[in-house]
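Q: What would this complex look like in 3D?
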Amino acid sequence: MSNLFRELEWRGLVYDATEGLSDALDRERVTAYIGFDPTASSLHVGSLMTVMPLARLQRFGHHAIAVVGGGTGMIGDPSGKSQERVLLSSEQVAANVAGVRRQLEQFLDFEVASNPARIVDNADWLGTIDVLSFLRDTGKHFTVNYMLQKESVNRRLESEEGISYTEFSYLVLQAYDFLQLFDRYGCTLQMGGSDQWGNITAGIDLIRKLRARKVHGLVWPLMKTASGAKFGKTEAGTVWLDPQRTSPFRFYQFWLNTDDQAASAYLKSFTFLDRSSIEELDSVTRSAPEKREAQRVLAREVTSMVHGRDLAARAEHASAVLFGEDIATLSASDVLSVFEDVPATDLAADLFESSGFGIVDLVAQVQLAPSKAEARRLVQSGGVYVNNRRVTDPHLRVTRADAIEGRLFVLRKGQKQNHVVRLA
RNA sequence: GGCGAGGUAGCGAAGCGGUCAAACGCAGCAGACUGUAAAUCUGUCGCCCUAGCGGCUUCGAAGGUUCGAGUCCUUCCCUCGCCA
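A: Here is my prediction, written as structure tokens for the whole assembly.
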């Protein structure tokens, strides 16, 4: 069995790890877990950063446990947060847990006989324990001094807002999770992003104190874009895995738009491509960056993994048409299939009869712009296109004669944001 | 409870009673340049229209002074700090 540790290492995914972890991974089949916060009902591309190591772990023959934080989600992890979180209702948490769980299932293999994956909800134990036992049996092993030293807590102590007792306790809950997983499943490794290091070591310390066993932790660096911005957000907001929230087309586009500097790291983090393939792509990026070969492969791989081969191929085709050919030469049905993922609005055909529909009103109407003033500004600055042709006159009236086959328009804002208007 | 500081647009932060829809920075949006990249540069960035030295609604809330208030007064709410 080749070593998971070295695999993660060349992929740039080892930021910190406990002593002896690499040896342990060499020696035995390890049971490891990663926690997922149910802060929303869908995972987003940032979550892939966490999902992938778990999937890799399983591919390397170890036992993977995904823990969905139905219990801890009721509290909120202060790590990496500068502000107190708004609490989610228990209904929200339950709904989110269900959504996240469903998505996690597609990345893990529950059928393999040797090391089937497992998904558990920490509400199973956190939801039933009583306060007194918790404080006596677990709380007793944490000094406040120790907790105050944790970066996640410390940073908040220095902030104006402070930290509530609720979030302060989070660390102990996560440590308790690790203990439970150790007891129930023999779990001896917890992984996570580097912001989790404090929470992970707390669990390690707890197990050492209570069970006299040395268990391990590993964290990877937090993913940032080359420009240092947070990963996974675009102008349109978070990029979700749920196709209802982020269409496969936009998902594909997100990855295709990766900048050159980040492409290599993304390939390493988000695909299963092997080292030589990735190095090959790196060299293509260096010699012919305008081909964006690395980005294309990245987008294809990740989209296929999340949405399947077919949808990925369609997104790829749609991209080619959209940014290459002239839409006006396509048939209405081709346009519709290419723009299947793009938001669409149905408008009554007679609105486009005679004098037609004012372009500013149309842009505002389909909400490509939040207000008419904004729509007007867009047009004046040259950011609006009808069927791929730029419109600059805010007084332009769009009529039915301009529609593709008299049936539809493709409105575009900027270079990428399309909107289909169907005449009904 | 006492004392002090403060609440201005998505965020940060200016703002001698008039020329304040409100400087500046960030974020956002668009344009140029490109490779659907990065960086850079330009414009824009409350809402409405008949697009103008136009109308309307904003500066924690409510009242008041004034010809005129983000700017002054009163009360209230909230935040932060120090002391009890």
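A: To summarize the key features: The first helix of chain A runs from residue 4 to 10. Chain A has a mean pLDDT of 86.
Q: Very helpful, thank you.
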